[in-house]
Amino acid sequence: MPVACCVILKCNMYVQINMLCIVLQEISLDKKPLRLLNRKKNVTTLIYVGNPVQLIGRSSDKGGKFVLLDNSEYDSKVLSQLTNPLHYSQIEEDPTQDILKVVANWASKWVSQGQIDVVFLDLQLSICDRKIKSNLHFKPTDSHNYLLYPSNHPKSCTKSIPYSQLLRARRICSEDSDFSAASKSILSFFEKRQYPTKVLTGALHRIQGIDRAEALSKKSNTSTNLRIPLVISHHPSVRPIIRAIYRNIETLRKDPSTRDLFPEPPITAFRVEKNISKHLVRASHPQQPTDNTPGTFPCGRSRCNTCPVVGKNTLINILGSNGNRFSVNQHFTCTSTNLVYILVCGRCNCLYVGETKRRLADRITEHLRSIKQNLQGYPVATHFNPPSPCSIKDLAVTAALMCRGSDRDRQTAENRLIMKLGTLSPHEEREALLSLKRNKNLIIKPADKGGAVVVWQKDLYVAEADKQLSDQTAYTELPSDPTSDSQALVKKTLTNLIRNNQLPKSATSLLHPCPQISNFYLLPKIHKANNPGRPIVSSHSCPTVLISEFLDSVLFPLVSALPSFVQDTPHFLRLIQDFEFPENCGERLLFTMDVSSLYTSIPHHAALSAIRHYLDQRQDPQIPTTTFLRLTELVLTQNCFQFNGRFFRQVKGVAMGTKMGPSVACLTMGHFEEQLFSQYTGSHPFLYKRYIDDIVGVATGTRQDLESFIQFVGSFCPFLKFTHCISDTSVVFLDLQLSICDRKIKSNLHFKPTDSHNYLLYPSNHPKSCTKSIPYSQLLRARRICSEDSDFSAASKSILSFFEKRQYPTKVLTGALHRIQGIDRAEALSKKSNTSTNLRIPLVISHHPSVRPIIRAIYRNIETLRKDPSTRDLFPEPPITAFRVEKNISKHLVRASHPQQPTDNTPGTFPCGRSRCNTCPVVGKNTLINILGSNGNRFSVNQHFTCTSTNLVYILVCGRCNCLYVGETKRRLADRITEHLRSIKQNLQGYPVATHFNPPSPCSIKDLAVTAALMCRGSDRDRQTAENRLIMKLGTLSPHGLNIRMDLF
């Protein structure tokens, strides 16, 4: 007869109460060893139904076997151990019969009802006939605090939780009725956690299609998925980034060096971020200090140098230069260790944040020593010494944070406090920079030559530009922006040339994807009288910019083959290195000539004629000359630009600023010189060389012969005007002072009177390898130029004095000079051919003092990648570090564009006044200047807009709930807002703005207000980038705002 369960409680008047364990399986009455589901301390109690037998059941000491022992045999083994009163007590009566009666009643009840209710883990187990039935058991203390659905987690994560819980119920519940009841309970738990009905019903439908046997089957993980995980932090904005990665993964897979690295696209994995629990729950329980007073206090030691500076006052609330405050909430003394500290200047409230692993007193002693010794290169010492008005008497110290972790944790805490308090640069300097940037009455430009910075009064700048643009022989004014027309013409021309097989199909890449109008600006010529401006056209995104680059790559080899070509100063020095005047020649004369306004003086027909002349001399032309001429004509005639809100086209000359400009000017001059020398019958110069529009030469005849030649040059071409200088001693050419010494030409370094020598300041935030190389490069330049050692010695002294004024240490300067003194001039002049085949991959990062440990860590661990077969070929050598050029003060203040200032400078968005404008009512409700985002950040509108403003970023504001939507448009603001109004009135589905301003939302179209936020002059990408930044600044992504995504390229 099968036995469902049994109990053994026979112990001869000695009773030890043990945990009651249920054997939930069918067992037989034979004495075979049984495997039990639960036991404790090698004592197992059996409950069975049937006639009681005198057996004792125990699990073996080892091995997990179950043993049935005879009563007498059991007594003989245990009575010897029961006499210890510390572990056992004797009772007066045998309770066996009473316990057996209770057990018998339980067993009879269970058998009569055909079930047994026992809880094991999360199972409720019962006997049904000869089987054990299982059901899901919820403990009374279960909170069911599943992840809230609106929480900031991947939706794949939140949606999988109901499915996993229902799958758990499917496994546990052996009866469908039990599963139905359990699933209803589970779904009710998730409804309280704000899970949508659609998600819950979808999970339930998936589970209902799974059989219980399939759910219970053990899944063996035999997957060999080798996809590389892309581990990132989850944020609503990362989805477009992931999609962009998957769209462009083929680029890596096409590269032979990375083909094996990504055999399949990477799999996205989101890291577990720090949640509320990790913020609040701590394993450590540090001992509370006896004195809980926050602040830093003297230690009381007799020779402590730090006690006086921490005892001046109790610094609790530290005010940063950016307005942020930091409150000290811990107790410190001079002997406290492993902390972040703050130095405070009591006179000017300037702050310094540092960290130390040692005692605070030891680190502050080092600061005090640097101040007393006025050590150079230490910012604290510089601040508390003359010429600064602050002194060591103004110094106060406080510890800020106790750091329990590693050195990296302490340094991280230091960096966070630096950013919080804004101690990297003085607040006053940033305010002055912003004030200068906002000053619309000043134009700041670099000087045309000499490296000086020129502040130009705006009205004088505009007057000089208008004076030059009023020359109708060179410029013609246009009624509107011609960019779209120029783009259409460029596209049509390229299409025709490709169709006629005059250009390859790849020439479609010469069409700029996002063209914009060029800008006209002036560079002041401070080295000339009345300081005229050199006209420059900034054409980096004009419709013909790519064609100009292509033409320059074709024309420059023709330029370098010209007889008079000079590439640069070292090239010219190599040309005259072995020059000697003939013996018994006439006068030895040097002369220079300069072409006045060469770029703007060249007629288009002369430029095209010169280019045709040299292109026809090609030996194996793959592209016809007529094709190049058509493209050149396109660049010359479509040179359009804007200035001060007006549009112009250059009708004569080539623009200074276009890539092919120097090549076109040089070829035109080369063609002019070829005709000149072929027609001039007089005495030619012994040497004639030219650098673009600067000519230098040597004559050996009489001065009158040379003057006749120069006069002929000036009259040969009516559109070119020349100035000249003749000397029998010395002349200036480029940065050279050339003089005659016997039969040789001696060269020396020439400094223009307007040279500012504004080299990079040594303490500036640049890589030291960069700042240290500047003195060396300037001394090497002098070594090349100066043909006499005495001249080099004088020039080097001048150069070193310039760098001393820029705060370069003497050690750096003397080291550079010693390196140069070991280089011979012939070696310095020799042309270095760049034959390097260095294929090291550049690691391009922003420079910061803290990146050095990062770079060292990369180099230390690069072997890990090189040992991996899939990345071995990717890094055959360690990467080479390259620091990107960051935005400096010049890029903040100097602008090529000079937009026309509106007549009304009132910031905000105002009605345009047109009779049928639908946007006027929503922009005329109020003047939105300061926009408050959902994250507490504010955005201030500081430009003037109307409904007809174009190419901008705008904000929709709900006046009822202050919900925001950020958008962008290239068209008029009124056109884009009209589309929003139409979507609201038609209640179009899938449009977040329409959904927000229609029922069941309490907000309506009457609550809508609109403001333009930013004017974007650049391309579509620039405008969308500005939109994304404003979305992040104001926190308008759903659910905190109405933006559902950010567009990425």
UniProtKB/TrEMBL annotation:
Domain GIY-YIG, residue spans: 336-430, 949-1044
Top-level taxon of the source organism: Eukaryota
InterPro entries from the UniProt entry: GIY-YIG_endonuc, HTH_animal, RT_dom
PROSITE patterns: GIY_YIG (PS50164), RT_POL (PS50878)
Reverse transcriptase domain residues: 504-745
PANTHER family recorded: REVERSE TRANSCRIPTASE (PTHR21301), REVERSE TRANSCRIPTASE DOMAIN-CONTAINING PROTEIN (PTHR21301:SF10)
Listed name of the protein: Reverse transcriptase domain-containing protein
Species of the source: Holothuria leucospilota
